[in-house]
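Notes continue from the previous slide.

Worked example: a multi-chain complex. Inputs as given:
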Amino acid sequence: MAKSKIETDHKLDVRMFITGLALVALYAIIVSVLLSLGVSTVLVIVIAAALIFSQYYFSDKIAMFSMHAKEVTPQQEPRLHEIVDRLCLLADMKKPRVGVAEMDMPNAFATGRNPNHAVICATRGLMNRLNDEELEAVLAHELSHVAHRDVAIMTIASGVGMLAGLVSRMALFGAMFGGGGRGGKGGQNIVLLEMATLLISILIYIVSFLLTMALSRYRELAADRSGAILIGKPSVLASALVHITGDIGKIPRTDLRKTEGMNAFFFAPALSGNSAATLFSTHPSLEKRLDQLNKLEKELNG
Amino acid sequence: MGLRDALFGRTKQVAPNLDNLFALSTAALTLQSELDLVPSGEAGLCFKSGSGESTITTDDDIKQLLDFDETTNKVTLSTDDLGFKWLVVKDPDFEALVTRIHAADTSMVEHQLGPRLLCAVFGFVPKTPPGEGSVRLVYLMKQGTFYPFAPTGPSQRNNELEIRVRSFLGTDLPIEKDLTRWMALWNVPVN
């Protein structure tokens, strides 16, 4: 079959590549900072790696647990299963487990360390608010996250931030208790070195956080794109987005704060943004997403 | 999906596999001799319509694209409750039926609509009713495999009969090994 021209968006590729590259560069900086610290680095790396790995390895269980989501059988939720069945066969991918979270906030997420251990989950509110076609569009977006291995990629990305945070904490500890006991010029140098490490680590943490957020937003746009192409109707995904995001703004913040930690996996972010929204949010703005879907719709219309 | 596609968050559209459709002729003979099931004379093609000119939007477009003779009134087009289009062909000659479905598939692939194809369904009914009930053979376009679907009610299927069909057709057809892919097509418009 001739390759369709709509499958790639080179500008999005370039932006994602640059973001990814910047993260890799950060890794290099962190490693050199760690090496300058000496022996304790081994322990730091082991702890950080173990934390990151378990977060990645148990991502499906952690997400399901913190969302109070339960896996459902085709008998319990025939509609949801039917839609996921068809999408998976269209995209020729393994069917993930299907879950439902009994909450009124309309949202969906997909997680799991790889496509074989993936779980796709919709909230009751989402199923109540959207019609079947829109629900299908949202699920196609989530399945794209699974296909793109976004859990692995976002774990690696946020792992960098976690590593940086650990380094800065270690450095702070070293500066306070390590420096005092030693006298002379050598001790002074060590204190200075550790202070520098601390400052660098904090800087790295901030930058890596911003980059992770940027990467997350690009992954969302990529999933929007793939999902829209899979269902063939970008306008339906756009309409689903408008419904969900419009409703989310009306729900009180106090109820939503509990789900804050889940933002990176959500279809629409749980907290409505404000001034710093663009830099710090895990999801692109509604305008950006609608804009992209609109362009895609035009491309499809040739 | 390759590493590069994963890194850039891209999904390649999947092209359908039409190679195994013609294996149905021998399978039909086996079904008749072993389970007393004969072709119902109906077959259907299920696909997802998209937006835009590069895809098909109206029923007329589809009929024109698939070059069907409307005067014979053998072809109907409907949309199911999940928004998928069903093209149902009627022809008492089973070989001709398979050929027409294959031709329709090929025509859609030529128009770059291959990724939109979901499955093709062929109906089989008991030769001496009531028999054991009717069975549909579903061909999964992307996987290139078949599976039997034997609905007995609005949301019930005869799994026992389906497994027996599988055991008889295992040598004739590539049967879908992953049972989770044996999708239930309730309200399938093909008899």
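Summary box: Chain B has a mean pLDDT of 83. The first strand of chain B starts at residue 37 and ends at 48.
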